[in-house]
């Protein structure tokens, strides 16, 4: 079996390390890549084709793991050459998965949630042929969500709905606690019910949200636009909170 | 040393069980109590005085653990007879602690957070003489928050700010996930970062909030009134969310 990569960042590199089976070989291409990137690629046990078109033709599983902004374009360019499974692992919206599905025969919508470079990452998949990727459970933790394209992307949005709104709540509670000089006690008291790592995790969430507040606001806007019909009182408040920072 | 109880519910009973030292005796009174309550009290190793006034006079530590609605009245009635420490363990507002402080000489503002009938409850205390209760660490987990009356009550409000707003967020996220038939997957995905018990804890919070939504709304209103000067975007949204249920 041949697994081809379009995009060879942390996600692809980690998958290559984890999927350790002599019957599986990996390929990618040097097309349009800098010498520096190629030097990096040559550190791995991976075949290098002349073009991504060839990678698409030869792959039983073609993995697109680039960046959300190019995911649809990549599917337009190379999807038609892929007769195997086309697995997208970019952090894309449900609408982008529907778009990609038009350009690709056997599309599977995927996401790695949690630490992407961990020893046992969890990969969520959905799509008509998603079962065909369950053999990867020998190497990592694969969870079939449904046979519907878009479900993994929606699940990512739902996750994001919760975590980003929670961060806004943490920012607000922490502000008030600080005004009463009770911020450490606030974390201590909540650790009793929220677990030992509550303080550490909360401070890291607050810092991360404040540092990347522009991106977080854009992601909250995306969520609000996508779940347009839903009554999103809390999520909209989170966006207002971040807008006021 | 004599510890006196005004109010002999779960909190008092558990403290009596935990504070196990031959040098410490316990008293309460039969005043105004039903035969049934007295039968219950006689199950415990506790002296019974004729009046709560006598309990107040004799106690080195007088514990008021009744109900929030009578806490201030109790301090008015018996506070003046108490030359020892007066410890209030009712779930009262910061303003009520300031009120009680006017009626009592050595007031300590206290709260038991987490399970009140556990083997190792955590008791938070604040007040000028709060250090004098640290010897109770031999029997339970005592945390001195500050020397300022009201700080423990504020800490309870801060805790409540977080947990009640979180419940509103959980209700909203769960609703959206359900509309996409992804509610189980939503919990699974979040368990990766929020811990194994995320689903169980979240469902119990959602149920608890829906069952007691009137009380939860009142508590959110109290928080909003107390922290009036603060910019409470998230907490106000939580109240709107619960109002729309």
Question: Can you put this structure into words, describing what you see?
Answer:
Two copies of one chain form a homodimer. The first copy, chain A, is an alpha/beta fold and 245 residues long. Chain A has ten helices and eight strands. An eight-stranded mixed beta sheet of chain A has the order 3-2-1-4-5-6-7-8, sandwiched between helices. The first copy, chain A, is elongated. The mean pLDDT of chain A is 95.
- Could you give the distance between the termini of chain A? 51 Å
Greatest chain-chain contact: A-B, 50 and 50 residues
Strand order of the largest sheet of chain A: 3-2-1-4-5-6-7-8
User: Roughly how much helix do the residues of chain A carry, as a percent range?
Assistant: 40-55%
Global morphology of chain A: elongated
Question: Could you provide a short overview of the structure?
Answer:
The structure is a homodimer of 245-residue chains. Chain A has 245 residues and is α/β, with parallel strands linked by helices. The first copy, chain A, is built from ten helices and eight strands.
Itemize the secondary structure elements and their pairings.
Two copies of one chain form a homodimer.
Chain A: E1 2-6, H1 10-18, E2 25-29, H2 35-41, E3 47-49, H3 52-58, E4 61-64, H4 71-78, E5 85-88, H5 94-103, E6 106-113, E7 122-126, E8 141-146, H6 151-179, H7 183-194, H8 198-211, H9 213-226, H10 233-243
Parallel strand pairs in A: 1-2, 1-4, 2-3, 4-5, 5-6, 7-8
Antiparallel strand pairs in A: 6-7
Helix pairs in contact in A: 4-5, 6-8, 6-9, 6-10, 9-10
